[in-house]
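Message: A physicist's question: would you kindly supply an amino acid chain plus fold tokens?
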Amino acid sequence: MGKTPGKTEKLKKIKKEIVELTDSPLYEYRSGNDYFPVIGEGSHNADLMVVGEAPGKNEALTGRPFCGRAGKVLDEMFQKAGMKREEAYVTNIVKDRPPENRDPTPEEINLYGPFLDRQIKIIEPVVIATLGRFSANYMLEKFSFGENFSISKIHGKIYKKEDMNFKIIPIFHPAASIYSPERKTDLIEDFKKVKKELRTG
């Protein structure tokens, strides 16, 4: 793929910094529950990065992203689109679990966001699929597409600018299909769009 060496070492450095992130408002909750931070997993040479919002309980107990109910839906989406999850890199903006699975706060997103920015620079994806409104708004605001979008209006759209090395495709969070089964059709179609954009580059 012609990508730069040393990615694993750089990603390990990010992991070490997050493990030691005692300034995080979520650090005490992590420590008190014997949780792990969830850094990300998958290919370090991935053309596709999948970015969720924050880990849930199963993820915090294992240190692995999307390994619970939403993760099963995500696995199904990869399968139906004819892609392999292990060839992607899957992560979240916020790397620690918020209490009671509440939404991440702006403070938490601002604290953990730069780690995601570094992961993107290291991995050099072709497409970033954002799962849910928080990750979509973070990425679209960062690259000056606007802010506070409704995920129901922007899902499946392709965002690209001349100064970007990748495309952003917002998608519903997989958990949405657990509570609203009709969302599964949207998820499947959007993942097929992701695959198409990966092929076209």
About this structure: The chain has a mean pLDDT of 94. The CA atoms of residues 94 and 112 lie 5 Å apart. The chain has one domain: 7-200.
